Prior knowledge:
The protein is α/β, with parallel strands linked by helices and 391 residues long. The chain folds into 2 domains: 1-65 and 354-391, no CATH class; 66-347, TIM Barrel, CATH 3.20.20. The protein has helices at residues 7-10, 16-29, 32-47, 53-64, 74-81, 99-118, 135-142, 149-171, 183-200, 218-231, 246-256, 266-282, 296-308, 328-336, 350-366, 370-387; strands spanning 86-91, 124-127, 175-178, 207-212, 236-241, 287-292, 318-323, 341-347. It has an 8-stranded parallel beta barrel with strand order 1-2-3-4-5-6-7-8, surrounded by 7 helices. Strand 4 (207-212), helix 10 and strand 5 form a beta-alpha-beta unit. The longest helix has 23 residues, at 149-171. The chain is globular, with a radius of gyration of 21 Å. The two termini are 26 Å apart.
Amino acid sequence: MLNFENTESAFEYQSKKELKKAYFLFSLLKYPFLVKLGSILTVIAFKMGLPIKSIVKTTIFRQFCGGESIDESEDRISQLARYNVGTILDYCVEGKENDNDFEKTKDEIIQSIIKAKENQHIPFSVFKVTGLGPSSIIRKANYHEELDDKEKLALKSIKKRVNEICKKAHDNQVSIFIDAEDSWFQDFIDELALDMMLTYNKKSAIIFNTIQLYRHDRLHYMKNLITKCKDSRVKCGLKIVRGAYMEKEREQAKINGYEDPIHATKQDTDKDYNKAIDHCLNHIDALSICAGTHNEFSTKYLTEKMSKLNLKNNDNRVWFAQLLGMSDHISFNLSKNGYNTAKYVPYGPIKEVLPYLIRRAKENTSVAGQTGRELSLIKKEIKRRKSGNIS
């Protein structure tokens, strides 16, 4: 029986010491002022060359990241695997703007694919298109603006890198997620994703596009994408999420005077998310999905829908995923009940992963109830262990 209140299963993989560290960290993340101040000071300290790397590594980095490299992430991969939770290695280096860095990122993603091929506990790989080329070029291409010869060459290189990654995934039969990004990049990403699906998804869902349901146009887009894939006789791969860039999206819409692409209310987002689950499962013979959600209701909704359609808990066309360091009560209770479950495990050099860590910290303060929920569950488990004298 799926029970998200079962903290024994949720935190079985963590020692008492690790639980206390997590509790302390989430206690700090409750306060937006502390998160904002801490983020600014950490960035300044790194720029000044102050010796704070070890502090960051043993606190927030340890909570939300696997390691500084694939090899360093091995312990985390093994730890999760002992509880039947898979790992999705996510190279989280952001903000690069030259060809050498883009090639290095491409090569690193390919290494994560090779690692996934070797290790059955790594069910997916993942990448961001903006990590493979200048964001300014991607933005121009998104709006079909005219490019000069140098920009055309840069755009060609982006497409080449994406194809190299997707071909490697196909050749090694490793499914790969193309992450969703800001709306001013997303149309271009969607075009690339469809092209890769038509090329590499002829036998199975290797390439997955990501659908952010906090956008009011994405349910319609998702339905059309499924239809296009069916008409083309290829499998559709979909990762469905709520979304991660709401405040920035609203701000840009206001500044530039266009319609806000985000749903007016969270309730509208929730409705579209669950409608997306319905539609995907009603067309499950034509696709594979990964529900990337920290929402308990949507998770149970999907498991109940699977049951009604007589789909096995471990049907390989249906996966669940959460971020490392968050919502363990969902991940580990799902896996305990036989559902296909994985954790996004970010990795990379600490200084270069810092933007991701800051975003993760801010997200925990902005998502209503997220930090409070984490704290209450950790506190419950600490109390349970204390009463049972469990280490």
